[in-house]
Structures are given as structure tokens and as C-alpha cells.
Design a protein that fits this description.
Blueprint: E1 2-3, H1 17-26, H2 38-45, H3 48-73, E2 76-78, H4 82-85, E3 90-97, H5 113-128, E4 130-137, E5 142-146, H6 151-154, H7 167-181, E6 186-192, H8 196-199, H9 205-214, E7 220-226, E8 235-246, E9 260-270, E10 282-289, E11 292-299, E12 304-313, E13 321-326, E14 337-342, E15 348-353, H10 365-373, E16 382-387, H11 389-392, E17 400-405, H12 412-424, E18 427-431, E19 444-445, E20 448-450, E21 454-461, E22 464-465, E23 487-491, E24 494-496, E25 498-503, E26 509-514, E27 521-524, H13 540-554, E28 560-564, E29 576-579, E30 594-598, E31 601-606, H14 619-625, E32 630-635, E33 646-647, H15 649-667
Parallel strand pairs: 3-4, 3-6, 6-7, 7-32, 15-16, 15-17, 17-18, 18-27, 28-31
Antiparallel strand pairs: 1-2, 2-33, 4-5, 8-9, 9-12, 10-11, 10-13, 13-14, 19-20, 20-24, 21-23, 22-25, 25-26, 26-27, 29-30, 30-31
Helix pairs in contact: 1-3, 3-15, 7-9
């Protein structure tokens, strides 16, 4: 139990006032022995037990009246665990909202998770009050001070967008704000549905964030407001590829004349199927192709339905365009549609940077060139070439999708050559070098660097890895990659700000992705040589991660770009929205799903693949993240809209009135009943009592 006006509790000693008055009244009279009263005193002793009990009850009732009045004026709060964690008025309230697509799930109350949780938060903030309300949004890179909590509901920015929320970024921004502004006391509210894709609990950043938060001198309380309930029978749609081919023979449409056709490959995922029939029925699909709509049906085949190379006729001469696939609305509209752009397939080019021979015959370069040069489908051409770091300065990277770096990390001057390539959306994978002295250990790239080389006496296998998204995710059928079968004999630890994708049994990251401002940089802490790892010998994992990185980099080439929301944060001022929800500003187009046009380019923005995975963070993982911090978790059940915090002063007023009534009843004089006279008799007076008579009427 906590109070909005705790200073009133200093008046609690006043509850002793009735007792003090009672003791004073007892000492007002002097006791003088009187023989004539001895018989009355003897009679009074017979009923002393009841009198004492009534006196104590009256004192207790009067004490409760005073206590109830004091507690009511102090304005107590009560709401389960939250009522014990909210303190007095704070100086600053920080608000961190998860606005990822999964927060668009409809709750039983008919609102989205984000809207429901935000409204409950606003009601609570209006009750407990604060001198300052600050909303932090790292996706839009802004910190906004609110005049009142209601602005959270009014702001259009409080709607869900297609970008995944990086909760670690939010907490880092909160810690930075506290250090720079030095508020007196802070309440930090985190609103989230606890999706693993938003929290990245395997990231090595959390230990550093936890230390940073514990070093803050100001009192900080963290309140996690969550709704982790999954969406029953929710379906998600995702387009895997959209390519153009000649309708006649499937040749490259750029070399063919006449009409062609669009080949669509897409998947429909339905998790937590409660009704098997609902996952095995005809499902209507709506196709919007350059503004022209059509419908067709597909039959679901369980929790995962794959449609490959669905042919859609195109008009003669049409080689580029855009479209949208959508399924009927369900509990989450954010994953019911997927935007795509199509055009002539681009050649997926890879550069393998190695200090050895450039002909690709070395043990290091050859496996990488093979993995990058063999296409996954006949419609897509892949090319790979090896070159030295010195030759990289002369290379044209405008049409390159992937760079594989195998030697020591280059100096900053060489890294600067790849900055435009990475900002454009290209991918870079660095393999740990088996050469280089200690002076090379201090070089970092995109915030990552190598540790000292370690050789194991026997093979070490991967202990754990992220298998639901990114380069090591499972295949479409749901089967996982055999990452656990990889054998590591030699490795270098990956150091720096990272998201660990794979770890050794001792927790050392062996495959990691940079979280620096430069996106698309991966470090693999071993090499492909046979005496160092089984990456080349058991080539499934190596081929899968290289082809996925190559596909991501190729999506940013040509006249069409297929981007993940939040991937490109700059250069959107010249974009024009062709289709999609009418939300956001031109500077935030990269955060919202839809199709945009920039000159002659078509750009499709969609949610990340990890948003289709419903795995959530466990309680143990949350306890580890907030270890040593003042933290509580408030679970929103069933889309409830009740206030998180309620004032219960009315309850104390009711108790005070009850105590008043009880005290009045106890103070009423005792009713004495007179015994009935004998039949025919007449009562003329009280019973005669002589000197020897008994007080109860019996003669002595």
C-alpha cells in the first residue's frame, strides 16, 4: 500500500488520542472507601468481564475512526503488486513504447495491444502524477517531452509501424537521458509484448546496459507493462520472391519480347492452430498488381503453406512494377499483407577478399566462391570473384551484393571505401584471420573486433544459436539448420556491440551481427580451412548463410528494392507513397509498410521476418536483464482496460463510518428487563433488603 500524500501519515500517532483521553478520564476521580457501596461493588464485579470488553471495543472503534480519516486523506493506492511499488510523486517519467507489428494484435476488448496498454498507462500516469513526461523513440531517433500523458494517445506516432523495436536501444537511450539531464527521481515505463525479436536477449549488450543502469545515482524504478498473449489462429503472409520471366520458355525477360509473367513465391504461416479444419481449407488471396485487383484461392496445408512460382500474366512490355498480396483480416492486420516490387532479376555478385592468390584455388577462397556462386534457383544468376585488399580500391561496388572478408581487418581508409556499399544495403561477412599480430587486435569494423586466437585440443560444437530469424533461421518447412553439428577447432572471440547469432558452450559468440549505425555487417569467429572448422566440409550452414546474406544485399540493387522496415533511415525525403497505410511523414517512410517510388526506382517496405515468430522472453531472462534494479512486471490479461492503479480512500471512509456506528451502538446503555409479578400480586416497590440481605435478593 502506497500513498499519493504520504506526508499525512505523520499524523498516525493521533490514533492514540482516544486511549489518552480514556486514561485521563480515569484519573479525574478520587477513590474514597464507603461501606454502604461495598454491596454495589460486589455486584459490579460479577459483570466486570463484559464491561471491560465493551470498553476495549469502544476504544478500538474510536481509534479506527481516527486512523481511517488519516489514511483517507493520505490517498492510498492499491492494485496488486503495482500498489506496493509505486511511490510518491516522481520528478521524471520516461515512456518506452514497443510499436512493432506484433503490437497490432487485436485484444478481446476490440483494440490493439498497443492502444490497450497505452490507455491503461495513461490512466495510471494521470493518477500518480509526475513533474515531467518524456517519450523516447529510437526508431525515429527523437525524445519528446509531453505536456500530459494524453498526448501518447493523440500522437499519430503512437500507432504501430512495420519496424522491429530494439528494446535494448530504448533502455540505452533512457540511461543516456538520465545521465545527461540528472532528474531527481525517475519512473521508467516499458510497454511491450515481450517478443524475442524486439528484446534480442542473446545479445551481449544486455550486461553492459545493466551495469550502466545500476551505476545511475538517481533512484530509478522500472515498470514493465506487458501483454504477451499469442494471437489465436492468426495467419501471417510473406512473399519470398517476385521475379519476371518470359511466358513462353522462362527465359530472361530482358532478352525476350512480347508478354511475360510474374512468378510469385509466398508462404502462409498459422501458429497455435486450435482448429485443424481452419488450417486445411481454401483461403482467398487478394492480389493488387499496379492498382489492378484480382482474387484466387489457395488450399492451406497445415501450419505452413508454401506456394512456389505462382504465375501471373503481365502486359506486353511490362518489366517492372509493384504489388500487394493480402489474406482475410484476422487478429493481427499487420501481418495479413505483404508488399513487393518486381523487375528483371539482377545478377547477384560477390567479392571474396583474400590476401592469397586471386584465382580462387586457395583453401580459403574456393569454398566461399562456390557457396556464393551457386544459385538457389535457375532464374537467378550468381557470380563470385576473388581479389586482394589492394585491388578492392579499384573495384566497382555499385552492382555488388556481398563482400566476404577473410584477412585481418583493414585500416580505416580501406573501411571507408565500403561505407557507401554498406549504407546502400550491401552485406559484409568477415571471417576470423589466422594471421596477424597483436597490433591487429585493436582494429574494429562497425563496432566489432577480434579477440586472441584460441585452439582447442578437440572439436567444440556450437552450444546455442538463434534459429528463428536472421542468417541462421530454419528453412521454410520449419526444420532448423544443422548449426549444432558444426565443429570448431580454432576460433577468435567476437568483441564489441553485437547481437550473438551463435555461441560456443561457454557462451563465447562465434557468429555475430553488428548493431552499429552501419547495418549488414557480420563476424564469423572461425575460418573455413579444414583444420580450423567444418564450415567447408559440412557446407550446408555456410551455403545457407552466404546465400541469405547475398539475397538481402541483392534486394537493394537494380530498379526495385525490397527492404525491411527500419533498414534504410536516410534519403527518404524524395520518396512518394504509391500504396500502403497513410501514416507517418516522408522522413519516416522507411518505418512504415507500403510501396514507394524514388525517381525510376520502386521500393517495397515490409516487416522483418522475425516478426512472424511468436516466441517471447521468459521470466528468467527478464530477471537477468533487470538484475539488481528496482523492477516490477504488470501483466495485462484478456485485453483489460481497467486502471492499473486505483485510489482506495473511499474504502477507508466507509470503514470509518462503520467504526462510528459500532462505537455508537456500544455506548448505548444496557437495557435491563424487570421480572414479571406473581399472579394476582401487585408490585408496590423494590424488594426489601435488610442488613443481611444478599445483593441478588437472597437472605443471608
Amino acid at each position: 500500500m502506497t500513498f499519493l500524500q504520504p506526508w499525512m501519515l505523520w499524523a498516525l500517532p493521533l490514533v492514540a488520542l482516544p486511549i489518552i483521553i480514556h486514561l485521563i478520564n480515569q484519573r479525574r476521580f478520587q477513590t474514597t472507601p464507603w461501606a454502604a457501596m461495598s454491596f454495589l461493588l460486589a455486584a459490579n464485579r460479577m459483570s466486570r468481564g463484559y464491561a471491560k470488553l465493551r470498553r476495549y471495543l469502544i476504544l478500538a472503534a474510536r481509534t479506527l475512526v481516527v486512523a481511517g480519516l488519516i489514511f483517507a486523506v493520505a490517498r492510498p493506492l492499491s492494485s496488486g503488486w503495482l500498489g506496493t511499488t509505486i511511490g510518491s510523486r516522481v520528478d521524471t517519467t520516461l515512456i518506452l513504447l514497443d510499436r512493432s507489428p506484433s503490437m497490432g494484435q487485436i485484444t478481446p476488448g476490440g483494440r490493439t495491444k498497443l492502444e490497450t496498454l497505452t490507455r491503461r498507462l495513461v490512466e495510471s500516469l494521470n493518477t500518480i502524477r509526475s513533474d515531467r513526461y518524456v517519450w523516447i523513440d529510437t526508431n525515429q531517433d527523437q525524445i519528446l517531452e509531453l505536456e500530459n500523458p494524453e498526448q501518447l494517445i493523440e500522437l499519430s506516432a503512437a500507432d504501430t509501424d512495420a519496424a522491429t523495436t530494439d528494446t535494448a536501444d530504448l533502455l540505452e537511450a533512457a540511461a543516456k537521458y538520465i545521465r545527461e539531464n540528472q532528474p531527481g527521481s525517475v519512473d521508467c515505463w516499458i510497454v511491450s509484448d515481450l517478443r524475442r525479436s524486439d528484446w534480442n536477449v542473446d545479445s551481449g549488450r544486455w550486461n553492459a546496459i545493466n551495469r550502466s543502469l545500476r551505476q545511475i545515482s538517481q533512484p530509478v524504478r522500472f515498470h514493465l507493462l506487458t501483454d504477451a498473449a499469442s494471437a489465436p489462429d492468426n495467419r501471417s503472409l510473406r512473399v519470398q520472391s517476385a521475379t519476371v520471366a518470359s511466358a513462353a520458355n522462362g527465359a530472361d525477360p530482358a532478352e525476350a519480347s512480347g508478354a511475360g509473367e510474374l512468378r510469385l513465391s509466398f508462404t502462409i504461416r498459422q501458429v497455435d492452430v486450435s482448429n485443424n479444419e481452419s488450417a486445411r481449407r481454401e483461403l482467398p488471396i487478394e492480389l493488387d498488381l499496379n492498382g489492378a485487383r484480382s482474387k484466387f484461392n489457395v488450399r492451406q496445408t497445415g501450419d505452413l503453406t508454401e506456394i512456389n512460382q505462382w504465375a501471373v500474366p503481365l502486359d506486353a512490355g511490362q518489366r517492372t512494377g509493384w504489388g500487394k498480396l493480402s489474406i482475410p483480416a484476422d487478429t493481427n492486420a499487420a501481418d495479413d499483407e505483404y508488399y513487393f516490387v518486381y523487375g528483371s532479376p539482377v545478377i547477384r555478385k560477390t567479392i571474396v577478399v583474400t590476401e592469397d592468390a586471386v584465382d580462387g584455388d586457395t583453401e580459403t577462397a574456393q569454398p566461399l566462391m562456390l557457396a556464393a556462386g551457386i544459385s538457389t534457383t535457375p532464374e537467378i544468376r550468381c557470380e563470385s570473384v576473388a581479389m586482394t585488399p589492394n585491388d578492392l580500391a579499384k573495384a566497382d561496388l555499385d552492382d555488388v551484393a556481398l563482400v566476404l572478408w577473410t584477412g585481418p581487418l583493414p585500416p580505416e581508409s580501406t573501411q571507408a571505401l565500403l561505407d557507401p556499399f554498406l549504407r546502400r544495403g550491401g552485406r559484409l561477412i568477415c571471417f576470423a584471420p589466422d594471421s596477424g599480430g597483436d597490433e591487429d587486435l585493436g582494429i574494429s569494423w562497425a563496432g566489432l573486433s577480434w579477440g586472441e586466437a584460441l585452439r582447442h585440443e578437440s572439436d567444440v560444437q556450437i552450444g546455442r544459436w538463434i534459429g528463428d530469424h536472421d542468417l541462421l533461421s530454419g528453412v521454410r518447412s520449419g526444420a532448423s539448420l544443422p548449426v549444432g553439428d558444426l565443429k570448431i577447432r580454432w576460433h577468435r572471440p567476437v568483441l564489441g556491440d553485437q547481437i550473438g547469432l551463435a555461441h560456443l558452450p561457454d557462451g563465447t559468440p562465434i557468429i555475430a551481427r553488428s548493431i552499429a549505425d552501419t547495418p549488414g555487417v557480420y563476424f564469423i569467429g572461425t575460418a573455413v580451412a579444414g583444420d580450423q572448422s567444418s564450415l567447408a566440409r559440412d557446407g550446408v550452414v555456410l551455403y545457407a548463410l552466404i546465400q541469405r546474406a547475398l539475397a538481402d544485399g541483392a534486394d537493394t540493387l537494380g530498379l526495385t528494392q525490397q527492404l525491411t522496415a527500419g533498414q534504410n533511415q536516410s534519403g527518404t525525403d524524395t520518396w512518394q507513397r504509391l500504396t500502403g497505410p497513410n501514416v507517418g511523414r516522408s522522413t519516416t517512410y522507411s518505418l512504415h509498410r507500403g510501396v514507394y517510388q524514388d525517381d525510376d526506382r520502386f521500393i517495397a517496405i515490409n516487416r522483418g521476418e522475425s516478426e512472424d515468430i511468436e516466441a517471447t522472453v521468459s521470466n528468467d531472462q527478464l530477471d537477468h536483464i533487470f538484475a539488481g534494479l528496482r523492477y516490477d512486471r504488470i501483466e495485462n490479461v484478456g485485453g483489460s482496460t481497467d486502471s492499473l492503479i486505483q485510489e482506495v480512500w473511499r474504502t477507508f471512509l466507509v470503514l470509518m463510518m462503520i467504526a462510528f456506528a459500532a462505537e455508537a451502538l456500544l455506548c448505548l446503555p444496557r437495557i435491563r428487563r424487570t421480572s414479571a409479578p406473581p399472579s394476582g400480586g401487585r408490585v408496590t416497590g423494590g424488594p426489601s433488603r435488610g442488613p443481611g440481605s444478599d445483593p441478588r435478593g437472597a437472605t443471608a
